[in-house]
């Protein structure tokens, strides 16, 4: 958390300030911070609206559910969050998980948000944030890299205008390649054009250099214009594609596949569905929970991992501290309250958080501006969303998930610690089959490697008149027999003999101990 700690406070005052971080920065809020927060909030809002529509497609839900999931987290995190840069909302990875565990059914998706929030809130109240440290960097990198390929290829069918493609990855690849000849020319041309425009604007932004105040006004204005267009590239590309689709609609021919009608207005405030009506009866709460199965563990865990990893990365970059347990409370509260507004599970977004930080946000107040912009879009713009081509939304998703694939991690681990390639590859490969199997297998393999280092710690044995035993780490009971064997072998070998300990395999450090980076 940022800001100095106030001396002389009573314990209950410190507890309230710790649970409501807004009380720490709001009394010092200034007009200069308001100006920066307004700019950042509007910029992130222009990013989140088209992304929310696109991520609902990834989740297999009607597009309005992406917007329903994009405003409650902004308001809640403003009050409870400890990182000034983080923005909560729908993300590509969370949408992929919702697609797997909610069965493309809004009732299941909303209930999953509520139950995930309850689990995250309970973890925060019980101070279980330390459990996140047991999910290693190779596991997270393997999952996010596999997810980027799965999500990206899932949108190829929308780029090509194909219908009836299965959602299972391997079947999806087979059917897409088999039916590629059925691609619609209009969708393909528009989708590839949107991809090229997004890539070009991203490249232009990365090559811009800060302008000095001594440079001509025209030069500074042009750089500001290009940077603004590049930052709001998602909104600009979707707007341009919508105008193209609308012009075709007026001419009486429509070669593009459109999003379709979107219900107008704000979502109603109502409890999440604890049962579901079906034509031949009702699905009770217990059956719905049973259907979601492992999703009740995977979804809250991945949501918290993503948020905390992003918060830690930007807190380190901008020199402030976060509280992992408070982040759990904020995430849980956001998901619980969001489920009353028909939200599916949300988490921190790396892309939007980066935009937030780059535009100079001062406090979480920027989230209020972003949430307000989403509400205004729901209230007044939903009638226009029906003209947005699916190919344009697919291009937005592919552009967002491409940076998630980290090829450098494979080279880094090959140089630093090749053994950590095992959990990385296990997670990466199994996630193409089922996400939960990939994550659980990766965590299991990482746990085995961690336990091996406990059972076989590095031990140095020196002879200086007596045998001098120097453990390289703390000793635990699984290492007792190993230590006895080393001492017995060295004692029986006699003086001057090489130590058998030098021929034994020592501890196995994890990638994070060797300077591994952030997960997302």
TrEMBL record:
Ranges for domain SLC26A/SulP transporter come to 34-427
Q: Where is this region: Disordered?
A: 495-520
Q: Please verify whether the record's keywords include Transmembrane helix.
A: yes
Please indicate if the UniProt record lists Nucleotidyltransferase as a keyword.
no
Question: What does the record list as GO biological process?
Answer: transmembrane transport
Per UniProt, the keywords (alphabetical) are: Membrane, Transmembrane, Transmembrane helix
GO annotations of cellular component type: membrane
Q: Which domain of life is it from?
A: Eukaryota
Membrane topology, record value: Multi-pass membrane protein
Q: Which PANTHER family match?
A: SULFATE TRANSPORTER
Q: What is the protein name for this chain?
A: Solute carrier family 26 member 11
What organism is this sequence from? Gallus gallus (Chicken)
